[in-house]
Design brief:
With about 170 residues, the protein is mainly alpha-helical. Helix content is about 55%, strand content about 0%.
Length: about 170
């Protein structure tokens, strides 16, 4: 019984993704609350780190609170709705909320994220071959997650191109 509980905890723990994918890929992994000083890629002052942690905690708390209240059975819709609600309540962009939650460990299918975040992720992934910089770690981890759950591997190539019915534009001279 104890080992079975540990296996379940490993699958839902975003810090142990490799163990989770050896069993079966989870389509959705919810984020964990931010911890003080968890940003190891930046050298920031203690005051700035505290402000970042408070901001991340506010996003996390609003997201998780609203996630429970969304009246829908599809988890992707619940996540997207909670991201948009959090964005509206805090007056920040959808992409910033989604990236912050991805930094905290949120992993979900592409349809669970706002288009602005997908555009950011797709453009960052498209630049990896020719740009000296690398995409944020959360974008790389998200791409690995999308690959493991069977998302379209070439979505970033076609990113931003959506079919539109009757797109004729007439210009008179």
């Amino acid at each position: 019984m104890h080992n079975r509980m540990q296996d379940n905890l490993q699958i839902s723990n975003p810090s142990n993704h490799n163990a989770a994918y050896n069993h079966s890929p989870e389509r959705v992994v919810l984020p964990l609350p931010p911890q003080a000083g968890h940003r190891r890629d930046e050298a920031v002052t203690a005051t700035r780190a505290g402000e970042d942690t408070r901001f991340e905690m506010e996003i996390y708390a609003r997201f998780m609170r609203h996630l429970r209240n969304v009246p829908n059975s599809r988890m992707e819709i619940k996540i997207l709705s909670a991201i948009q609600f959090t964005s509206d309540m805090m007056s920040v962009g959808d992409a910033l909320v989604a990236k912050t939650l991805a930094d905290l460990g949120l992993r979900a299918p592409r349809r669970a994220f706002p288009v602005s975040f997908l555009d950011f992720a797709d453009k960052a992934l498209a630049r990896t071959g020719w740009d000296a910089g690398s995409p944020p770690a959360c974008v790389m981890k998200m791409r690995d997650h999308w690959d493991r759950i069977g998302e379209d591997r070439f979505a970033h190539v076609r990113g931003g191109q959506y079919a539109v019915y009757n797109e004729n534009v007439y210009i008179s001279a």
